Amino acid sequence: MAAMTAPAAAPSAEPLLSTKGVTRWFGGLCAVDHVDFTLPAGEIRALIGPNGAGKSTFVGLLAGRILPTEGRVTFAGEDVTRLPAHARMARGMAYTFQITSIFANLALFDNVALAVQRRLAPGQSLATEVEAALARVGLDDRLDQPAGDLSYGHQRLLEIAMGLAQNPRLLILDEPTQGLSDGEIEGFKVLVREVAKDATVLLIEHNMDVVMSLADRITVLDMGAVLAEGTPAEIHADPAVQRAYLGG
Ligand SMILES: Nc1ncnc2c1ncn2[C@@H]1O[C@H](COP(=O)(O)OP(=O)(O)OP(=O)(O)O)[C@@H](O)[C@H]1O
Q1: Atom 3, ligand 1: which residue's CA is nearest?
Q2: Could you identify the atom of ligand 1 that is nearest to the CA of residue 53?
Q3: Whose CA is nearest to atom 5 of ligand 1?
């Protein structure tokens, strides 16, 4: 029997996250229109689209910050459509949003400590976990500095550290590179590749260089609906995407 080779691990049949017909109206405006979306575990997925395409609303629906008018959201095999954001976080979703959610008057350490406390296991040291999360984004030399003193770009990195501190299964990043310098963007790419070794990443991003170099696959939203989905090369070559988004 020793000569038998182990069967290759079967790809997990169930996606980490999916939506079915998810829809959100704001008054007379349909911001997200019957979107079917599937995100397999382990992928880096970028979500792109023109301004007003519905990206932030869609991510709000995934995270539980916005409830759908109709449709279903499934996370890790569970229907989470009606679960509030904190319950989805407890199940392993973490996210950063365009509107920064840090506490400006608190030190970096305390901001991240708030996130770590959600999942600290017995025997784990709060300080060690906080410092490790800040080290991943390169901010561990400023533990005692008030978060409000950071540049906008560094505040975005702090938010990512707060997301990572939760050891998420899914990390959702809404325009994470906005306000970062070119050098910081390179560091961010390295960080996301590192994070993706043990988490799934969904990235809303306008910087096409970041999208093309990081994403395994790209989903393009336009007017609340999925216009296209594919590898960076496929999306780059798609005439409908070029017309709607890339200005081609
Ligand atoms: N709370 C709200 N009330 C009313 N309309 C809204 C609300 N939130 C979003 N919208 C509208 O829904 C549409 C989609 O907006 P959304 O912010 O999701 O798009 P987006 O793709 O994230 O845009 P951007 O790239 O500019 O951030 C827009 O027309 C927007 O004005």
Answers
A1: 26
A2: 21
A3: 26
Whether residue 244 is contained in a domain is answered as no
Q: Please tell me the residue having the least CA distance from ligand 1 atom 9.
A: 57
Which of 6-20, 27-41, 126-140 has the highest average model confidence (pLDDT)?
27-41
pLDDT at 217 over 80: yes
Domains held by the chain: number? 1
Question: Among 49, 16, 17, which Cα is nearest to 235's?
Answer: 49
Could you report the predicted ipTM of this complex, rounded to two decimals? 0.96
Measuring CA to CA, which residue among 181, 218, 191, 213 is closest to residue 202? 218
- Flag whether 138 is in a domain: yes
**Per-residue pLDDT tens digits for 71-118:** 999 999 999 999 999 899 889 999 886 556 789 999 999 999 988 887
Whether residue 30 is contained in a domain is answered as no
Asked if residue 248 has pLDDT above 50, the reply is no
Distance between Cα 142 and ligand 1 center (Å): 35
Domain span at residue 138 reads 105-167
Structure pTM? 0.87
